[in-house]
Specification:
Blueprint lengths: L1 E10 L2 E11 L4 E5 L6 H8 L7 E6 L2 E2 L8 E4 L11 H11 L4 H14 L15 H13 L5 E5 L7 H16 L3 E6 L2 H7 L2 E6 L2 E7 H6 L5 E7 L11 E6 L3 E6 L5 H8 L4 E8 L3 H9 L4 H6 L1
Parallel strand pairs: 3-8, 3-9, 6-7, 7-8
Antiparallel strand pairs: 1-2, 1-4, 4-5, 9-10, 11-13, 11-14, 12-13
Helix pairs in contact: 2-3, 2-4
Length: 304
């Protein structure tokens, strides 16, 4: 188990991480979510001991991270880095051996993972020949090929097409079912909502929300009416008793006022659009994220 206790980190006048505390558990996927500049990558780098915190403590099974513990860790950094002139198989063996695994142990694992991601025929091709998405998959394999107990993935879905993202998501879920501890950062709320056991939402370096997905959704106090439809989406603006609307490409989330029952909304929509799905449910993680964080990211505010 990893314990992050009241950890802070500053770079000059910028407080990148501000008193953050959480824990990870074996077999659990913890999503570290937040906008750009929230402090997610800095937090992971401190856990990895790449940089040290200014204050607070980070413990692995009750003790500070030791050099020997690093062999139990797999890490996919946000900044990808593979030697472009090296062949894929050689690159993966080299990185796995740096983590203490033998070539005999690595070879079948590398082959299995390459097959999982549809890269079985690329083992003897150079990294420079890979597309951006393929390089991303190879870097993921590099993080898991030595069979670590603890896995840190920093924005693992960035740059992947939908099919590859689904394969990667299934791989992360399978790793957690094997008892691995998984911590990954993302600002893609759909992926976090689909696979995380618990969520740690941070903004401007500080905790905003922390708990299971159900706990976070129930803490919002209101439910959304989800309408998947065909027709003119402007009709939703004409309905009385709606506090806010979150619009998506194929559906909307309507947040009724306390005095507006959901069936009144359905009656108001009848005959105006073709309704494919009408459901009362807890707000999506995307909507919670937008309401909790809102506005511009830190990077955008700094630019301003």
């Amino acid at each position: 188990m990893i314990e992050v206790n009241n950890v802070s980190k500053s770079f000059g006048s910028v407080r990148a991480v501000d008193g953050v505390s959480f824990e990870t558990r074996p077999g659990e996927i913890l999503g570290l979510i937040g906008p750009n500049g929230a402090g997610k990558s800095t937090t992971i780098r401190m856990i990895m001991n790449i940089i040290g915190p200014d204050s607070g403590s980070i413990l692995f099974n009750g003790k500070p991270l030791a050099e020997s513990d690093k062999r139990r860790i797999g890490y996919l950094p946000e900044e990808r880095g593979l030697y472009r002139k090296v062949k894929v198989g050689e690159m993966l063996r080299y990185l796995g051996e740096l983590k203490g695994a033998s070539s005999q142990e690595l070879e079948p694992r590398i082959d299995a993972w390459l097959d999982t991601f549809g890269l079985g025929g690329w083992k003897d091709r150079k990294i420079s020949e890979l597309s951006k998405g393929m390089s991303q998959k190879v870097q993921f394999i590099a993080a898991v090929a030595h069979d670590p107990d603890i896995l840190f993935f920093d924005e693992p879905f960035a740059g992947l097409d939908p099919v590859s993202a689904d394969i990667l998501r299934d791989a992360i879920v399978a790793l957690s079912r094997e008892g691995k501890t998984v911590l990954f950062s993302t600002h893609i709320m759909e992926q976090a909502e689909r696979i995380c056991h618990r969520i740690f939402l941070m903004d401007h370096g500080a905790q905003v929300m922390y708990g299971s997905l159900d706990e976070i959704k129930n803490s919002q106090g209101d439910h959304a009416v989800v309408v998947e439809f065909d027709g003119d989406g402007n009709v939703f603006d004409e309905i009385d008793g709606i506090k806010s609307i979150s619009r998506f490409p194929r559906y909307v989330e309507l947040y009724p006022a306390d005095s507006t029952p959901p069936d009144r909304i359905l009656v108001a929509l009848a005959g105006k659009i073709s309704i494919r799905r009408y459901e009362v449910m807890a707000p999506s993680l995307h909507s919670i994220f937008v309401r909790a964080v809102g506005g511009a990211s830190r990077e955008e505010k700094d630019d301003e």
